[in-house]
Amino acid sequence: MTLSQFEDFLVSLKLPQLTTLYTHIDGYGGVSKHLNYWEKQHKDEYVSTDALFAEWYTGGMSGGNCWDDTKPSYRAAYGVNPEELTDLDEILQKIRPQTSFLEYRTLTNKLVKNGTRSESEYYGNTSEYAHTYIIIKDLYNYLNEKGWLDEFSNNLPDSP
Known about the structure:
Blueprint: H1 3-12, E1 18-24, E2 31-32, H2 37-41, E3 46-62, E4 73-76, H3 86-95, H4 101-111, E5 113-120, E6 126-135, H5 136-145, H6 148-154
């Protein structure tokens, strides 16, 4: 199975967490779902890649305003659980349902990346987020190296 065939397969699953991520060619700044104004002016310095992506709110600063000198205070997101890459489970269920827990854990330890980002708002307010993701090309290469994609392709019914 080629990378483009794998990508077509993922599209056929209609995965809601398939996201385009941007990274700077020099590797600094982590990943981002969106390019800000400055980054758009320098978009030739960014590389886009498809990924399974989940993000959740973790807290921030609030209370700053233009009417008085109130200082922002920290707000935590109590009771917010991290999002999971449930699409990875769906992919593996289709490609290799007999995947053991240890195989799954090895895959996620090798491929899952985590990060954080902060959005600056007016008057010192901020929103903070955490995210987890897997680059689709890395997932493809891993599944291919393990021979799981060949197993999957060999078990597909012949096309008429």
